[in-house]
Amino acid sequence: MKQKSAWRWWAKALGEKASKCDKESDKIAVIRTAIFISYLITNSFIIANAIRHWNNNQPPIIHLYVNSK
């Protein structure tokens, strides 16, 4: 019974109940969970990229080419 109540709490945290039918509401909660996980993964990559390039202040390398004839 503990897993069922945890699922209900999670489904309620995702938003209001989508339907009066519990099976349909559970399916919609699974879809909302998948969307939430995709947002979480995307944001994690964005944050990781920002941290990776946090102090990337290297001076630019300038190449000079001289034409000699």
Key features?
mainly alpha; single chain; 69 residues; rod-shaped
In short:
The protein is mainly α.
Structure write-up:
This protein is mostly helical. The protein has one domain. Helices cover about 65% and strands about 0% of the residues. It contains two helices and no strands. The radius of gyration is 25 Å and the shape is rod-shaped. About 5% of the residues are buried. The model has no long low-confidence stretch (mean pLDDT about 85).
In terms of topology, how is this protein built?
Layout: H1 2-14, H2 22-52
Mean pLDDT: 87
Q: What oligomerization state is this entry in?
A: single chain
Radius of gyration: 25 Å
Overall domain count? 1
Please bin the fraction of helical residues. Answer: 55-70%
Number of helices, counting only DSSP H or I runs of 4 residues or more: 2
What is the β-strand count? 0
**Strand proportion:** under 5%
- Label the overall shape: rod-shaped
Sheet of most strands? none
Write the element-wise H/E pattern from the N-terminal end onward.
HH
The N- and C-terminal alpha carbons lie at a distance of 86 Å
Return residue spans where pLDDT drops below 50 for at least 5 consecutive residues.
Answer: none
Query: Which secondary-structure class do the elements indicate?
Result: mainly alpha
